[in-house]
Amino acid sequence: MIDIWLAIATLLTPVFAEYAKIRTKAERQFNFIAAAGVFFLVSIAFTASLFTNMLGSTYIFGVYIFEFLGWLFLVVGALWAVFSGLIR
User: Fold this and answer.
1) CB 43 within 8 A of CB 3
2) How far apart are CA 47 and CA 9, in angstroms?
3) Looking at the whole model, is its pTM more than 0.70?
4) Closest Cα to residue 88, out of 17, 10, 24?
């Protein structure tokens, strides 16, 4: 259940950055954060009943892979945005 809120939060981050007029300074960084939200949504999709019925317990590897990629993109995008903000 927490994954869906994490996906929504990471997908809304670039929207709020656009409203605050800070997205133009860090366009690529916020694209990384939005991509993390997409990866979190894909990891949630692996828990759908279609995958759990067809694949048995092996669907969990898809959840792990895409959740790891989501966290990786989120950390890279957030740290990159912070460091580029500190340098400018």
Assistant:
1) yes
2) 19
3) yes
4) 24
Crossing angle of helices 59-87 and 27-45, rounded to 10°: 170
Q: Residue 81 in contact with residue 29, Cβ under 8 Å?
A: yes
Per-residue pLDDT tens over the stretch 19-70? 988 888 888 999 999 999 999 999 988 887 666 666 667 778 888 999 999 9
C-alpha Rg value of the chain to the nearest Å: 15
Amino acid 1 reads: M
Residue 80 has pLDDT above 80, yes or no: yes
DSSP state of 22: -
How far is it, in rounded angstroms, from Cα 48 to Cα 59? 10
Neighbours of 18 (CB within 10 A): 12
Question: What pLDDT, in 10s, does the model give residues 15-27?
Answer: 999 998 888 888 8
